[in-house]
Amino acid sequence: MTNNNAAVVEIAQTAGKFTSSIVLQADSKYIDVKSILGLFTTLVNSESYELHVHGPDEEEAKAAVSEVFAKHGLHVRVVGE
């Protein structure tokens, strides 16, 4: 089992470096990935995640945030337009 605390903090910190909107869809909820509290409640209760990224630096943001999810053993699917 992954250490969710470390994952949450690193994901939020990584997302915070970008100006793009980065939203995680887990089940039927949408969470701002820059929100540590939102991530805490979501990463504990869900198995599959979709990442929606929109903005001027979305390509870099998708790559960086996906990398952090993978590093912590969390599977995320990046959703395109």
TrEMBL record:
Lineage: superkingdom: Bacteria
SUPFAM superfamilies found in the cross-reference section: HPr-like
Domain HPr: 10-70
Gene3D superfamilies registered for this protein in UniProt: HPr-like
Pfam families, per database record: PTS-HPr
This protein's name: Phosphocarrier protein
Organism field: Paenibacillus shirakamiensis
Taxonomic lineage: Bacteria, Bacillati, Bacillota, Bacilli, Bacillales
